[in-house]
Records
---
Amino acid sequence: MHTRRVAGDELLGRLPQPTGALSWVRDGTGLVGWGEAARFEVSGPDRFAAADRWWREFTDDLDVDDELGVPGTGPVAFVSMAFSDRPGHSVLVVPEVVLGRRNGHAWLTTIGDSGKRRVEPVRKPSEVRYSDGQVSVTGYRAAVRAAVERMRAGELDKVVLAHDLLAVADIGIDHRFVLEGLARRYPECWVYAVDGLIGATPELLLRRSGSVVDSRVLAGTTWPHDGMSDDELAAALMSSGKNRDEHEYAVASLVQTLRPFCDTMSVEGPSVLRLPNVSHLSSDVIGTLGDTLGGTPSLLALGEALHPTAAVGGTPRADAIAVIEELEGMDRGRYSGPVGWIDGNGDGELGIALRCAQVDGRTARLFAGCGLVAESDPDSEVHEAHAKMLPFREALEGM
Ligand SMILES: C=C(O[C@H]1C=CC=C(C(=O)O)[C@@H]1O)C(=O)O
C-alpha cells in the first residue's frame, strides 16, 4: 500500500459512487474512503478485543510505503461498533482508497492497484415518507415514563432511552447527498458513514494521537422553543439542575474509566455547544496515556473500556443497560456505538454514533435518544428526540 501527498481540498465531493461511502469529516478535514480491500465483522461482548486483534494482524502483514507518517496516513480502517453485547453486529472496513486532509497535509492512500471508479452524479430524492419504526412515539413516551418511575424509586440515577423512525425515499438513497447536507449544516460535527450508518455526531468518545487522548462529553440538551433567543436558551441550560446532573453523570463516568490509563488528566467545562437543531452542555477531557504493561493501549482497547458512557447508557452503567434492554424494546444496531477510524499505530478517532440513520436502499432507519433523570418529563423528552432527528431528516430531504 502507498500513501502519497496530493493537492486539492475536497473530501466528500470526491466520493465516486452513491453507496458504500466511508467518511469521518469535520469542517473540511478528516478522511473519506471508497472500495473495500478488506472487511471484518464481529458481534458479542469480545467485539472490541477481536477487532483490535484482527487489525493488528492485518497491518502486521502489510507492506507500507508512507510518504507522510502522520495520524491517518498508511493503513486505515473505518470502524462502527454495535451498541450492545447482544444482539449487534460491528464492522471494520479497510477501503481501497483513502483521501485525507489534516493540519495542512493532504494525502491519498491506495491498497493494491485499486483501479479508477466511474464517477456517478449525486442524486436527490424528490419524496420522502415517514412511518413508525420499532418503537413509536407513543411507545417511547410510555418507556420514558416507566424509566422515570424507576429513578424516582431510587433504582438508578440516569438512563438513556431511544426510539427510531423509518424514512422511505422514492429512489435509492445516495449516501453522498446526505453526507454533503449534514456537512453543510453541521460543520461543528463529525460527519460519518460506515457500512450504511450515516450521521453527524457532535460527541467525540475518544481521539488518540500518540500518548495524548481527548474526549468531548455531551449531555444535557435544549432546543428552540417558546420564542426564546439563543442566549436565553443557553443561560437556561447552564442553570438547569436537571441538565447539570445529567451532564455530571456523563463526565464522571468518562473520567473514572479513563483515569487508570492516564498519567495526567484535565476537564474543561461545561460550556454550551450550539448547533442548529439543539444546544448541549459540553465538557472536554484531555489526558496523557501512561505505560500499562509495557505499552499504551490502542484506541479500540480504550473504546472498549469507555463504551457505553452515561451519554448513551446511564449510571450505574450495568443497571442502566438492564433498564434499556427491558424498557426500550428495540435493537439499536450500531446507533450510539463507537464510530470512526483507526490507523496502523493504534491512533484514530472514535465518536459516538448519534444523529444518524442506518441506510439500506430507499430506506433509512433514524434513531434518537435522551438522557433521563428522576426529574425528566416524558413530553419534553419526546420533543428532544424529535429535535435530534432533524439533522438527518433535513439532509435527506435536501433542506
Ligand atoms: C442519545 C443521544 O444524545 C446523547 C448525547 C448528547 C446529549 C444527550 C442528552 O442530553 O440527552 C444524550 O445523552 C442522541 O442524540 O440520540
---
Amino acid sequence: MASSRNLNRFWEWGRKIICVGRNYPDHAKELKNAVPTEPVLFLKPSSAYVTEGSSIMVPSYSHNLHHEVELGVVIGKGGTAIPQNAAMDHVAGYALCLDMTARDVQDECKTKGLPWTLAKAFNTSCPVSEFIPKEKIADPGNVKIWLKVNGQLRQEGNTSQMIFSIPFLISYISEIITLEEGDLILTGTPKGVSSVQEHDELLAGIEGIVSMKFRVDRPQ
Ligand SMILES: CC(=O)CC(=O)C(=O)O
Ligand SMILES: [Mg+2]
C-alpha cells in the first residue's frame, strides 16, 4: 500500500541506513584492505542523519574524523529477496551522503575484532543532501561524486567504479534484511578519504545534480 508520508524528507521516517563498505577498489587499497568478493555491510541508526544547516559533530572520543562521500539510494517500495532484474523498481530516488567515520576508533575496533558502531554510528555521522527523485539520475551507475574540504578537492570518483552495482546490492541486502520504504543504502566511497577538523567546511556534490555544504564542530 502506498504511504501518505513524504519521501522528500525520508530522513524523518526513522528507517534503516544500510552502508556498503569497500565497494570501490581504489578506496579498499588506500586503506590496505582486500578488495571484497562479497559486499561488506554495516548499519547506522536514524539518529545519525543530519541535513544542511546543522553541523557535523566530531565525537568526543575521536581525534581522526574522516569524510567518505557516497551515493545514497532511497527505497520507495519495500521487499525481501528482491531479484536483481526488479531491483530498480524499488528505488524512489537518491541522495548524496557522507559516511562520517572516526577512523582512529575504527582502526582500534578492527584490531580488537569489535563491531564498528562507535566509529560509524554516532550522532551526525550521516549528513544527507536533499532528496533527488529517481528521474533526475538517468544512470546511477555512471555519476561523478566529489568532495572538497575548505575549497580543496579531496575525493572524486564515478559510481561506474563500484565493484557491486546498485541492483546487485538491493538484491543482496534484501535477502538478509527486508527493505522498507524510506530505507537508505549508502553505496561506498571512492578514494581520497581524509581527516577533518573543527571549523572545516565540507562541500560535496553529484556532478550536475546536487551539492551540499556542512561545517564541522566539536561539542563544548
Ligand atoms: C573501511 C570503511 O570505512 C568502509 C566504508 O565505509 C566504505 O565506504 O568503503
Ligand atoms: Mg563508507
